[in-house]
Amino acid sequence: MQLIELLKRIPVLEIHGDDTREITELVFDSRKVTEGSLYIAMRGTVVDGHSFIASSVEKGAKAIICEEFPESLNENITYVKVKDSSKALGQLASNFYGNPSEKLKLIGVTGTNGKTSVSTLLFDVFKNLGYDSALLSTVEIRIGEKIIPATHTTPDVITINKILAQAVEEGCEFAFMEVSSHGIAQNRIEGLHFKVAGFTNLTHDHLDYHKTFDEYLKTKKRFFDQLESTAVAITNVDDKNGNVMLQNTKATKRTYALKTMADFHGKLLEVDFNGMLLNFNGKEFWTTLTGKFNVYNLLLVFGIASELGFEQDEILQAISQLKRVSGRFETFKSDGGIFFIVDYAHTPDALENILDSINDIRTKNERLITVFGCGGDRDHSKRPEMGNIATKKSTLAIITSDNPRTEDPAAIIKEIEAGVEPQNFSKYTSIPDRKEAIKMAIKFAEPKDIVLVAGKGHETYQEINGVKHHFDDKETINELWKLMSK
User: Fold this and answer.
1) Is 381 labelled as part of a ligand binding site?
2) What is the CATH number of domain 99-321?
3) Which residues fall within 8 angstroms of residue 229, CB to CB, at 6 or more apart?
4) Residue 402 annotated as binding?
5) What's the predicted TM-score (pTM) here?
6) Where do the structural domains in the chain lie, given as residue ranges?
7) Which of 8, 306, 344, 455 qualifies as a FRET site for 139, CA 20 to 30 Å off?
8) Does 404 appear as a known binding residue?
9) pLDDT of residue 154
10) Which CATH class is domain 3-96?
């Protein structure tokens, strides 16, 4: 593609060189530059991509996008100056792949908790409705039946456009995508055209990155502020920050709620570990998903599908056929009568939601044993809060390692323990080795007891000192149960 075609819709400040050069690929990592590349020099928090312009030229880059020209200009290279290289990259990527987000209906879901569940549930609902779609989630990336491993909540914008272009080629009409705060802050959704944007909730998370809750809130809100007037924004008005998301959006505004008046209103009529009887906008239906947080997730799915033009009865029929998302309130019962739940809950709000949902269902004659930890190299302030929640709402809490990354597991556990209130000191123990912690929970559990293993959910690894080791909570539970029940 010619450079001049790639520069459409991008506010260019200055061009030095031939703008008709043929570009073979877009690259923002100088190590990946090949002959014919367009290198985008971006300023990062640690490294400035402008430092690698010369080496990119040596490797074969034919054109450079930058915020300032280098002192020495190569007459065989085209240099394009823009105000913000990171924002320009989004439109460059869209143009390079034929603006695929304009050729299908792209739906983005943001919020602290529920992004993966809602995006995956939407993908499955639309499959039940008879449509092939694309899914970009933490767990996996899918194009129809094809599965591509996911590495980030929101991939880089070149990868996103490449996937969306493949989806268009495969005949997909819809694409469902998690939109993380990191992705918004790092301009990974620039140049994308969203048909619908959904907001789940906003609670304490990622403050290691955003520093303050206000900054985290503003980042999420930016997603809605950037929507076009042709889009629809759907927000949870039971969340105190729900209406904030709609304050400056040009999109059509829609709401959903369980507790307040809304365009899409839901009621939880019955609940147990096998599922729930729900009422959405006056229509009753049964789902095998369970837990109050899932009522919100399904209600957002219902609202989004309704706004995309589907009949509410056919949406509810498709929802009633849904299966649970991997690692989200995933339940199984041992032949010894112990009930196991594996869930990704790794924030205070998510942990409280899952524990409240279990406590709403259980009869209190059985005990609730919770195994959990907190990730290393992440927000420290949520650790004591999670220690307090787990010990307050469980019969026994076993504090262990999650993904300690480069931190000392014992130091993380100590910070979690700091939040335990004196009256709950007898309700917890600490075992740094996650496998041993799960083993202790199984050993302590009796028939009818409930064991919740929280924090990792769908993940199949544990990161220790920068190395990922195979570890799967479900696999570990089954393996230990078989060994211990012999």
Assistant:
1) no
2) 3.40.1190.10
3) 250, 251
4) yes
5) 0.85
6) 3-96, 99-321, 330-485
7) 306
8) yes
9) 64
10) alpha beta
